[in-house]
Design a protein that fits this description.
single chain, 447 residues, alpha+beta, Beta-Lactamase, 4 domains, 55% helix
């Protein structure tokens, strides 16, 4: 609306100027010198007035654009004085300034929030220009982890710790990587990853580093505490009766030696006691071997294995014992071409464990059934499943079945599923379970 008013007033001025010029020409034609002089002065005034009318707007706009150029949005234009069209411009400029200041205020608040959050986390973060080495931003955790003061350029670290500089800034860690760095007289383990990003024509590198030494120490300490607790419990369960029985036998033998006539030694009791000590000692030895089976699986002998051959081997090994218990067994492959890079010996051990558990679960069912299948999923994962229609796993113990030494069987060691999980983790896979009490279970190996 203001634009149309401005054009209308400019058009009137041009029309008036044209009319006065025509009048000026006409008076010259009539040779009226006095009138021509007066009209000539009027023409000059009209030119000056139109020039000022147009220039006023451009001066206001130029003033505003100059403020925008230097990002001076604090400027306030008077809206209550001056020509109407100029006041309208001032109102628009002030509205733009208000909007930009609100956006800047919101951006500054978000930046402060982000900065405070990044300062509070115990993960070191730094971003710097790849070409110049100038630090764009870093938090206190980064400097504390590397034990360096605040710096504006990464060359500062190079001048003081060349090896650390090479490890942190010059080596690329596209995926999170655990490394050991030397700081003064101490070596610490850190988790590091980085990425490169582009802003306009400049390339920046973002590095994230976390000191995991304390976490590892704490986890190791907790693991040792749990291990010692389990081992102490199991060892005490074996040693206490052995000690008590040995003391009783020793006392009886001593009485016989002191007074053989009154205290005749019962050889059958002695034999029974020694046999009990032997059995408990074997139990303790079995426990030690069981623990060793958990700890010795630390590396893999990977090879390309056809699942058809793996299934055939397991079927030959397990089918006779399954059939002897009148359990129906089925092996099913979605494709004979399925292959995996695995340690065949260990995966066989996993599957044998799962099949034995399935046999135990469905042995009391009316029509016991076990199915072993393998298929390739749409996400390219290969899964092996062991189904059974057995008694299922009670919900209250479902979360504990992979815990070492946990068992719901009277004769179980509680080590089978724990070992299965460790083997799958070494293969960078996972083992899943889905079970419904009274209906059966399915264990899934995901590769």
């Amino acid at each position: 609306m203001n634009y149309r008013g401005y054009i209308f007033r400019l058009f009137l001025r041009i029309l008036l100027l044209v009319a006065v010029i025509l009048a000026f020409i006409y008076t010259i034609y009539l040779k009226e010198t006095a009138t021509s002089t007066i009209i000539g002065v009027a023409i000059l005034y009209l030119f000056y007035n139109m020039y000022g009318f147009v220039k006023r707007r451009f001066i206001v706009m130029d003033d505003f654009f100059e403020a925008v150029k230097y990002r001076d949005f604090s400027r306030w234009f008077p809206e209550d004085r001056g020509p109407k069209d100029i006041r309208f411009l001032y109102t628009g400029f002030n509205e733009i300034n208000r909007t930009i200041k609100e956006i800047n205020s919101q951006n500054e608040a978000q930046y402060v929030y982000l900065q405070k959050i990044l300062e509070m986390v115990d993960i070191g973060i730094i971003a710097y220009n790849l070409e110049s080495g100038d630090v764009l931003w870093s938090n206190d955790s980064f400097r504390e982890t590397l034990d360096v003061p605040s710096f504006k350029n990464i060359r500062f670290v190079e001048s003081r710790h060349p090896e650390l500089f090479s490890t942190i800034f010059e080596t690329y860690h596209r995926e999170p990587n655990s490394i050991t760095i030397a700081l003064q007289n101490e070596n610490i383990k850190v988790l590091i990853s980085d990425t490169v990003f582009q802003v306009d024509k400049d390339a920046f590198k973002l590095i994230v580093i976390q000191n995991i030494e304390d976490t590892l120490n704490q986890n190791e300490s907790e693991a040792w505490k749990k291990l010692l607790s389990v081992m102490t419990h199991e060892i005490m369960n074996s040693i206490a009766p052995i000690s008590s029985l040995a003391e009783t036998l020793q006392r009886n033998i001593q009485l016989t030696l002191d007074n053989p006539k009154e205290n005749e030694l019962e050889l059958e009791d002695l034999n029974s006691g020694i046999k009990t000590i032997k059995n408990r000692s074997e139990g303790l030895l079995k426990f030690a071997k069981t623990y060793r089976s958990l700890s010795k699986v630390t590396h893999l002998n990977l090879q390309r294995v056809k699942l058809s051959e793996l299934f055939k081997s397991i079927q030959l090994l397990m089918e006779p014992s399954i059939k002897s218990k009148n359990i129906e067994v089925e092996f099913n492959l979605s494709s004979p071409k399925l292959e995996l890079d695995i340690d065949a010996h260990l995966i066989e051990q996993v599957m044998i464990n799962l099949i034995l558990n399935a046999m135990d679960a469905c042995k009391d069912q009316q029509n016991p059934f076990i199915k072993i299948s393998a298929e390739k999923m749409p996400n390219r994962d290969i899964v092996i499943k062991v189904y059974d229609n057995g008694s299922g796993i009670p919900l209250e113990i479902m979360e504990n079945i992979f815990i070492p030494f946990f068992t719901s069987k009277s004769t179980g060691s509680g080590i089978g599923l724990s070992l299965c999980k460790q083997i799958m983790l070494l293969h960078k896979g996972k083992i899943l379970v889905n079970s419904k009490e009274g209906e059966g279970s399915v264990f899934t190996l995901v590769f």
